Amino acid sequence: MKLMVVGGAGYIGSHTVRQLLAAGHEAVVLDNLSSGHAQALPEGVPLVQADLLDPAGVKAALEAHQPDAVIHFAALIEVGESMRAPGRYYRNNVVGSLNLLQAIVETRKVPLVFSSTAAVYGTTDAVPIPEDAPLHPESVYGETKLMTENMIHAFHVAHGLPYIVLRYFNVCGAAPGGDIGEAHPNKTHLIELACLTALGQREKMMIFGDDYPTPDGTCIRDYVHVQDLADAHVLAVEALQRGQANAATYNVGLGHGFSVREVLDAVDAVTGKPLTREVAPRRAGDPPRLVAGARRIVDELGFQPQFTDLQEIVRTAWEWHRKHPHGFGQ
Ligand code: UDP
Predict the structure, then answer these.
(1) Any idea what the CATH number is for the domain that residue 189 is in?
(2) Which terminus of the chain is more exposed, N or C, with fewer CB under 10 A?
(3) Is Isomerase included in the keywords of this UniProt record (predicted)?
């Protein structure tokens, strides 16, 4: 198949492009390069530099490249920033997605796989969280993802658009070999920050709260490796191509979690440099435990995560950061 990967120059998008090629598919990337990196793309993959806020440009790209399906990653992704600049988030994530949907139904009406997030669930007591849990996003970011899920469903009902929504839990790690990986301008993710601290770029690691109702008092998250997540997208587009799983929504996670302390222990073990740790107050909006109900995608799409060992996951992130201490800048 030929896939148009929207936001394909970003962290998850670029890993997905690789896994698509490895599975024998063809990819063309559409990205505005606001946070993505052209260097993250394999040689020979065409890059259309266009913005979803330019409907004519998006339509022209679809008409020029005639993809068999579209995978949509392009979004602003920072929870804190979304609360300070809601207009930017609604415009970029919701209006941008609307323009893409409109362009798809006006051109080829090909299947769509959409990047959503566990943030659509908000705080919940459900452990693990099933896909049919109530949806109460607590940030503008989560709200923009839920609004987009709902828009896609409406286009499915009205125009027959086939789709799959994937709700990611905590994405981490890097392609083995360490040549592409996470390189966001603002760093907030635990494993990335711990690796950069181990490299001496920061003094110490803050543990945001150690008085949560969990075994060691720190928050538990479901850490899914970016390459496994990329494979989930390959499975999703292939299923839609076969006419399977149309209008389905899947969590993507391991179905079990690790605490902040367990993650930092794994980073210490992998880097061989024990990090200085300091317990800080809880970070606003962090639920104690977020773990994916992860059976549905296993049962229906045959998803088989390869990276289930925390140290192995961390090792791939460490390899990337060690080789590229300043991301794609070096
Ligand atoms: N965390 C932490 N120190 C940090 C960064 C994160 O203790 O420097 C905690 C955070 O409070 C959360 C977990 O690590 O409980 C995962 O946070 P991250 O930002 O990686 O992902 P999120 O769960 O917010 O999507």
Answers:
(1) 3.90.25.10
(2) C
(3) yes
The count of domains in the chain is 2
Please give the number of the atom of ligand 1 that sits closest to the Cα of 283. Answer: 11
Handedness of CA 305, 308, 312, 314 (dihedral sign): positive
pLDDT tens across 15-42, in order?
999 999 999 999 999 999 999 999 999 9
Q: Which domain holds residue 195?
A: 173-221+255-329
Whether residues 80 and 143 fall in one domain: yes
Q: What is the mean pLDDT of the chain?
A: 96
Taking the mean position of all CA atoms in its chain, how far away is CA 92? 17
Q: Within 6 Å (CB) of ligand 1, which residues are found?
A: 170, 188-190, 193, 205-208, 219, 221, 260, 283, 286
Q: Which atom of ligand 1 lies nearest, measured to the CA of 193?
A: 8
pTM listed for this prediction: 0.97
